[in-house]
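Title: Prediction job returns without error message
Component: structure pipeline
Severity: low
Priority: P3
Assignee: unassigned

Description:
Job completed but the reporter wants confirmation the result is attached to the right record. Sequence as submitted:
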Amino acid sequence: MKVNKKLLAALSGAVMLLALSGCSDDSDKKLNDWAKGVCDQAAAQTKKINDANTAITQVNSNGKPQDVKAADSAAFQSISEAYKSLADIVSKAGAPPVDNGDKIQKDAVSDLTGLSTQYATLKKQVDGLDTSDQAKFADGLKGVSESLGKVSKNGEQALDSLRQGDVGKAMAKQPGCKQASASPSAS
């Protein structure tokens, strides 16, 4: 069962998306202050996602189904909570001071909340797996992996609103958002 490596790769991809929340330079103090406020708080949530990725890699994919199930369930719960917190951070930060700032904020909050819900659904899917039969468990875990692939694609699209334009440029300069690039890689 090499499914855990696939799960890790997909989760790492989601964390990398947070790292790519912007890429350039902007001198607008208000926007930089907004980005700093968001990124400083986002760093803790990024760490939570990284820690969840690490937990998955520490479980032997050929080990006991109960151990794999418990690790994946806990990781999905943690990631779901982190995305919910990220949505709250962006919501409380207010609209970024740019054209269409209200829309950017609304879209980002909606997308991050959606990702939280999707990871909570993955947790429920993992929690429902039968661990009494190794073959059934492996098949079920394969289905979870396929679902995770879809969630990861949704995550990439969801964060586009924060990656673009002046907002993305301002966020790219913030240490809290740069820290996200230190995500674990799939082994």
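Comment from assignee: result matches the submitted record. The chain is about 75% helix and 0% strand.
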